[in-house]
Specification:
The chain is α+β, with helices and mostly antiparallel strands.
Length: 256
């Protein structure tokens, strides 16, 4: 969404940039680090950090700052009020109970995908991945099955803009890190209407995803199943899981 310049509140934008500078790589930041990450001067970053701490969104020891539980109000409000997670949850639970595997629904946010709904893993312990599979977890779009499904929904011009100047980090020896190869993968996803990612995000983890479309044919999310604990045969996974995922996507279409 674009707005007129007079309607843009620069102070809010800078404050959000400081808040977003905290991530899994840097959970604690001082004013210098926050300034570098948010693209601000050190003095401006310090004022925003102190304000966010005063409002209760950050905690501090006087030098370093870190997020407080209050920031969960945003995600909690989204999950409670958004129609998408509530519409998907019963289907995710049913799939998990039927197969004993773990299922998630994911949306695209910039260079990452975000888990907005997920099932438990019934009948077996759930292994926590390095980046986590909890609600709100953010994963790199280029290295995940859901990310490629969602990138495949972009127009060629939108995909080119998404790739422009972007570095694709190598997370495992199997990660696709060249834009040309990623384009080829996404072209194949468009043809097959599904995406398989084998150990690209984390070794020992494979995932299969399909798009979730509304009645207008727009892709609003991706549905995937994640298997961990060893290398699974891709063809066997497709035969076993793909019909279930496609059927669930068809059932959910009227709800989206």
């Amino acid at each position: 969404m674009t707005i007129a310049k007079p309607d843009f509140i620069e102070g809010i934008a800078k404050g959000m940039a400081v808040l977003e500078s905290f991530d899994t790589e840097r959970q604690r930041l001082n004013a210098t680090l926050a300034a570098e990450r948010a693209g601000l001067t050190r003095a401006a970053a310090r004022r925003h950090l102190l304000t966010l701490a005063h409002l209760g969104y950050l905690e501090t020891d006087g030098s370093y700052f870190w997020m407080s539980p209050k920031v969960l109000r945003f995600s909690g409000s989204y999950l409670a009020s958004s129609r998408l997670p509530r519409a998907l949850q019963p289907t995710l639970n049913r799939l998990a109970a039927q197969t004993g595997e773990s299922f998630s629904a994911v949306v695209l946010d910039g260079e990452e995908v975000v888990i907005v709904a997920r099932s438990g893993s019934y009948g077996m312990p759930t292994r926590v991945l390095a980046y986590g599979l909890h609600l709100g977890a953010r994963l790199p779009a280029h290295a995940t099955s859901t990310g490629r499904v969602l990138l495949a929904a972009l127009t060629p011009a939108q995909l080119s803009l998404w790739l422009k100047g972007r570095t694709l980090p190598r997370l495992t020896p199997h990660t696709v890190t060249q834009a040309r190869l990623l384009r080829q993968c996404i072209t194949e996803v468009r043809k097959q209407d599904c995406s398989f990612a084998g150990e690209e995000h984390e070794l020992g983890v494979q995932a299969l995803a399909v798009p979730l479309r509304n009645m207008q044919g727009q892709t609003v999310a991706a549905l995937n199943v994640v298997l961990s604990g060893g290398r699974h045969d891709a063809d066997a996974l497709l035969r076993r899981m793909l019909p279930l995922l496609f059927e669930a996507a068809r059932e959910l279409r009227a709800l989206l």
